[in-house]
UniProtKB/TrEMBL annotation:
Superkingdom field: Bacteria
Organism: Psychrobacter immobilis
Lineage: Bacteria, Pseudomonadati, Pseudomonadota, Gammaproteobacteria, Moraxellales
Any GO CC annotation of this UniProt entry: cytoplasm
Name used for this protein in its record: Ornithine cyclodeaminase
């Protein structure tokens, strides 16, 4: 069994590999629906909102995967602690186990924080690849936390022609830190990065907007964005949360989710839009999921067009974590990465 800490996972997992693993999973799910099993994740709220603590959550996310020869199980355990940044600790902690179902042998135990960030970002990268206009030149980053960092990485990976990045964060300091770190870590992309004081200044000219926040109401309106913008929304992972306004959702020519079942329980933006008497959008207007997008089932709807907003909403599913974690576990076995121990 290999023990893989965050440094090892980060060093040996790149964005293109994560995108490839997830696209392969989506094709496999379409061809063999019974080969991938991922029950809806268990979410338990932690603490209560008070002066001492913010409301957090613990998530348990198991999935099994059969590849035609072998079957594996990956289980991710996640704890989300909103107060951690004030303690100089990450908001999200996670660990993932990967095991062989034939023998029950645990192949690897690995840090799950970077895998969570990369797989979430990879989903946005895939959606951008298929949904955004072909001539993208700029991207806005709304919310400059850990998820947003890799999300920009993913968008740049699939659209390296982007030249301008706009950043907005509730604290300017967070956006400035993001800018310095991204410029340092990814010098291969010749982009101009601008920190914006006002969110509308950030999104106004963007061809792609990445949103990753814990907001509880829409952050920008339809009249503040381009008519053909593509939006990747990965925050608002609980029904009480919301970062995409109802008028943006209702006027999107395409709304695609990563997980059909999970989105109906967790995608706060879409749940609230559907439930609102003042919003015309309902679940019947959902265009489809990422699997249909990648396999071509939504091909007519995804023909590149300059007429209408496109929206990708991600809540995450255990199968995506499993695909990326299995890739890392197999790389670890082949290259003897991390620490090898007898269990």
């Amino acid at each position: 069994m290999q023990l893989l800490n965050k440094a090892i996972v980060t060093e040996h997992l790149n964005m293109q590999s994560a995108i490839g693993a997830i696209e392969a999973l989506l094709h496999q799910q379409a061809a063999h629906p019974n080969w991938i099993k991922a029950p809806e994740r268990l979410v338990i709220e932690t603490f209560s909102e008070d002066d001492a603590h913010s409301l957090g959550s613990h998530l348990s996310m198991p999935a099994t995967m059969y590849d035609g020869k072998n079957e594996y199980t990956a289980v991710k355990l996640v704890t989300i602690c909103p107060d951690n940044p004030s303690r100089n600790l990450p908001t999200t902690t996670a660990i993932i186990t990967v095991s062989n179902n034939d023998t029950g042998e645990i192949l690897a135990i690995m840090d799950g924080v970077y895998i969570t960030q990369v797989r979430t970002a990879a989903l946005s990268g895939i959606a951008t690849k298929y949904m955004a206009s072909a001539d993208c030149q700029s991207v806005a980053v709304v919310g400059c936390g850990g998820m947003a960092y890799e999300q920009l990485h993913a968008v740049m990976t699939v659209r390296p022609e982007i030249k301008t990045v706009y950043l907005w964060n509730r604290s300017r300091e967070g956006a400035e830190t993001f800018k310095v770190k991204f410029t340092r870590d990814y010098p291969q992309w010749d982009v101009t990065i601008t920190v914006c004081e006002n969110i509308n200044d950030a999104v106004r000219d963007a061809d792609v907007i990445n949103v990753a926040t814990r907001a509880t109401e829409g952050l920008f309106d339809l009249n503040h964005i381009k008519s053909n913008v593509h939006i990747n929304a990965v925050g608002a992972y609980q029904p009480s949360m919301k970062e995409i306004s109802n008028d943006v959702i209702a006027n999107s020519r395409m709304v695609v989710v990563d997980d059909l079942v999970g989105s109906r329980h967790e995608a706060g933006d879409l749940i609230q839009a559907h439930d609102s008497v003042d919003c015309a959008w309902t679940w019947d207007d959902l265009s489809g999921d990422l699997q249909a997008l990648v396999t071509g089932a939504l091909q007519e709807k995804t023909a590149k067009s300059n007429h209408g907003v496109t929206l990708f909403k991600s809540v995450g599913a255990a199968s995506f974590d499993a695909a990326v974690a299995l890739y890392v576990a197999q790389q670890a076995a082949q290259k003897n990465l991390g620490s090898s121990i007898e269990w």
